């Protein structure tokens, strides 16, 4: 018998002073049986960093043809493809052909090795931005996971604070590849 996804609910309040975006989002997350709390919370962090009224969770681990998050325009064109972790190079090259912008939030202990092996090939994808989340920060964000969450994310001058009622984590992102995107 196949294991079913575990459902998590989050109320996410985003104050992004860098983009002048302020909003509250009611999120329902289906955590795949093979997904860790850390990975699920990295998807929530990626949502907060790119919050938009048309941003939605994709099937991610359940469907290799969909990203962890994506934003589509009214015609169905993919405006922004977002993955977390250390995705396959071929997947990201295909995504860069489908979407105006592609963003990866790489995290985990093997991130430096993954990037060292992938940087040359991925560097040709001009609309691909790659950010590294330090392992201690991603682990701390993962510990914020609860079945029902009240979360806040504040972004100012590139500094990110992600918090729940219990704890707060400062996340310092390192840019590995800036990416330009085909649209603003």
General description of the model:
This protein has 184 residues and is an alpha/beta fold. It has one domain (6-177): Restriction endonuclease-like alpha-beta roll domain (Restriction endonuclease-like alpha-beta roll fold, Roll). The protein contains four helices and eleven strands; from the N terminus they run ββαβββαβαβαββββ. Strands 3-4-5-6-7-11 form a six-stranded mixed beta sheet. The termini are far apart. The relative contact order is 0.19. The mean pLDDT is 93.
Short description:
The protein has a single domain (6-177), classed as Roll (Restriction endonuclease-like alpha-beta roll fold), CATH 3.10.640. 23% of the residues lie in helices and 39% in strands.
List keywords for this structure.
single chain, 184 residues, alpha/beta, Restriction endonuclease-like alpha-beta roll fold, 6-stranded mixed β-sheet, 5-stranded mixed β-sheet, 11 strands, 23% helix
